[in-house]
Amino acid sequence: MELDVQRKMVAILKIIHECHTPIGGRLIADRLNLQGYSVGERGVRYYLRILDERGFTERLGYAGRIITGRGINELNNALVGDRVGFIITKIEKLICDTTFDIRTGQGSVIINISIIDKNDFDKTMEILKHVILSGYAFSPYIKLIEEGIITSDIEIPEGKIGIATMCSITIDGILLNNGIPVTPKYGGILEIKGKKPVCFEDIIAYSGTTIDPMRLFMLKKMTRVLDTVNTGSGKLLANLREIPVAALSKAKEVMNYVEKARIEGIAEIGKPGKSVLNAAVDAGKVGIVVFAGTNIMAAVSEMGIKVTTYPVSTTIDFKELKKM
Fold it and tell me: How confident is the model at residue 196 (pLDDT cuts 50, 70, 90)?
């Protein structure tokens, strides 16, 4: 069975198991969305039918599904090796898939995908422009996506619109393409005071989570992007990657080209072996902190607009993105 399908089925089994009472397809779909899977109620019904056929779940009329003993056994054994480090595995693949050339401005970049209601579109565009003009946005380039399937895990439902923003992990792909080994280390909440980054208030290691840190922080509503934009003090999403000390000089040269290509948002470049903005860095390494591409959509959420965001979603050709 395809790995993505397996993951969805395991996620559905886990939701049913943790519910302890019968649960219906609509609630399952809502909880899947919170875990980063964009699966509609129709898709959930399809997977539930397969789970029923295999004896992993049982339907109790209109009340919904319960998990069977066989389903619990499957849940305990399925994808054990795959669950740990899933996010870092996906990130590393997308870094390798990034082909953007900083000198020609051509090639593929990594994107985040956010979904909003079409009725909120005009207000959302106003907020995006406001944040992008502030200088805290990773990139002013976006793409609007109509209804339909984007990836195996993401679908833009009817009545919704997708907004692709450039993901800051694109920096890692650019560094790698220029011969600089790079390791994505942390995603976190970065405190800003007087328009300058002060320290990470909270961080999550990419290697230790199955859910993207940016998504978690957004779901917990821990950002203060609009405060940062309007007053110069607040809390932004940011991430840190490590490069070898020997590559620092070349990395700075690459970063200069990156800024000329209007891929911005570099918050801090550390010193060899030293913590950066309160985040630890390994010996022989240098930390580079970059504002996350999801900040502009976090600002939309702060204004009370319902946003579902999938960070580090996929890669697309840079020419598909348009400047705001």
Answer: very high
